Amino acid sequence: MSLHIREVTAENWLDIASLSVDENQKNYIESNSFSLAQSKFEPEWKSVGLYDGNVLIGYAMHGYDKSNGDVWLDRFMIDSTFQGQGYASRFLPILLRHMRELYACDRIYLSIYPDNSRAQHLYEKFGFTLNGQVDDVGEFPCLVMELDTDKGDNK
Predict the structure, then answer these.
(1) Does 123 participate in catalysis according to the annotation?
(2) What is the pTM of this model?
(3) What Cα–Cα distance (Å) separates residue 119 from each residue in 8, 24, 54?
(4) Close Cβ partners of 56 (under 8 Å, ≥ 6 residues apart)
(5) Residues 77 and 26 sit within 8 Å (Cβ to Cβ)
(6) Are 99 and 108 in contact, with CB atoms under 8 Å apart?
(7) Minimal CA–CA distance to 100: which of 155, 44, 152?
(8) Which fold has domain 3-154?
(9) Per the residue annotation, which of 59, 64, 109, 123 is the catalytic one?
(10) What Pfam families does this protein's entry cite (predicted)?
(11) Could you say which DSSP state residue 64 is in?
(12) What residue spans define the domains of the chain?
């Protein structure tokens, strides 16, 4: 198994746009089509496909808040076909390492829907903690992961 990240290109964007979460999760994340458009027109956001070999498994969008430079994992999803197979737990460290290298940051933020306890548990398992703040929309609790930039590991 060779899990890796690929940039979104003219060759794979339509496949990425077609990915979808389970019906009961659709209220928790924007559609990939919306996110792809956002990253196309807001250059601070980067869209990536999540692959196992040549098989597209999921999608993520990361970037930074232009107002303060905070680095965000703004979207992270595994297609419904591949959920329950451990992909989220295996891709998250790869994605976080990629972000750490790309942005040379000392913390990564994300926000979650308050009733999405499965996602919160996943992120906490990798070192994210609720920080008492809400996102820039003022609705969703934020989690933050403090990174040890000297060692490249979580604090």
Answers:
(1) yes
(2) 0.88
(3) 24, 13, 26
(4) 12, 15, 16, 19, 49, 50, 79
(5) no
(6) yes
(7) 152
(8) Aminopeptidase (3.40.630)
(9) 123
(10) Acetyltransf_1 (PF00583)
(11) E
(12) 3-154
